[in-house]
Amino acid sequence: MKDKTVRIKDIALKANVSTGTVDRVLHKRGRVAKDVEERVLSIIKELNYEPNLMARALGSQKVYRFAALIPDAQFDVYWYGPKAGVEQAFKELKQFGVEVNFYFFNPYEVASFIEAAQQLHKTELDGVLLSPIFYREALPFFEQWKAQNIPFVLFNTEITDYQPLSYIGQDSYLSGMLAAKMLHYGLPEPSSILIAHFDEDITNAAHLVKKESGFRNYFIQNQLNDTYQFIKGEFKSAQFSVFHQQLSEVIENNPDLKGIYVTTSKAFEIAAYLKERHIHHIKIVGYDLLPKNVHFLNNGMISFLINQNPKGQGYWGVHQLANHLIFKKEVAVFKYLPLDIVTKENLNYFLDKPEY
Predict the structure, then answer these.
(1) Which Gene3D superfamilies match (predicted)?
(2) Which of 5-19, 134-148, 152-166, 171-185 has the lowest mean pLDDT?
């Protein structure tokens, strides 16, 4: 049986007041006698009235200006995903007055991030979506937006100290634990494991610190910390010869190296090096379904990938802003996306399905 839609007119009739009075009570504007206000509110509750916010938004002339502050994909193809997600959300929400402007920065240069973030203050803003990969440099902007009552949503990197409207992405700590569990399967005891960070200042990358912490704590919690030796490596993929020299030294100095955990989307860099040198006994676990990662997953050089759903991060980030500002919905502080384990055998399922 279909529920009857409760209209403002129905409330007015039952309360014996005008529709204008009901409207003033609903929107807390204008003067209404206390006893009349209480009677109207009681009837609103009795009839279980819910405003049609979607229809109201469609009829509104207000423009909601969102800024998407994200790394430029020309420097790292991973960032095509969030950009595509933002664009998809915009297509769905533009009918409600949403505008989205992109502000791109070089993910390997702090100055580029600061310059892009400063550009936001040259225009009127209603909300911001960003990936704060430079932790320290992002904090002053958080303070500014809080002072200006501009809601901001974070994705990819979780920073809760400054109370963003919401965080979209995976639980970095748990993703590190999951990676450890997957890598641990089949590893001989004892052996060495390399934790490989790429193209990041680890002291300024909160998400990578949490991933590494989760990874290490898996072995501690399972009383395996003394069984495996951990090697930490920080690599620059752009410095090709230096990277190869670093990795060569790690392998030569640790003949019992049997597993590599890559904390970013650059697992293909390690896989390409190992394949070129016909090294097939080292298991690799990494992140993201980039074409090069998919290639090495298919040929067996990468054992597992954890899909971070970059499109979904951008998509849901814009929707969280819209839910808060336009549809007046309560927004969850954390929207954790699933930790999808991808193997050669189930890869096609993830490539075929939409990431929202």
Answers:
(1) 3.40.50.2300, lambda repressor-like DNA-binding domains
(2) 5-19
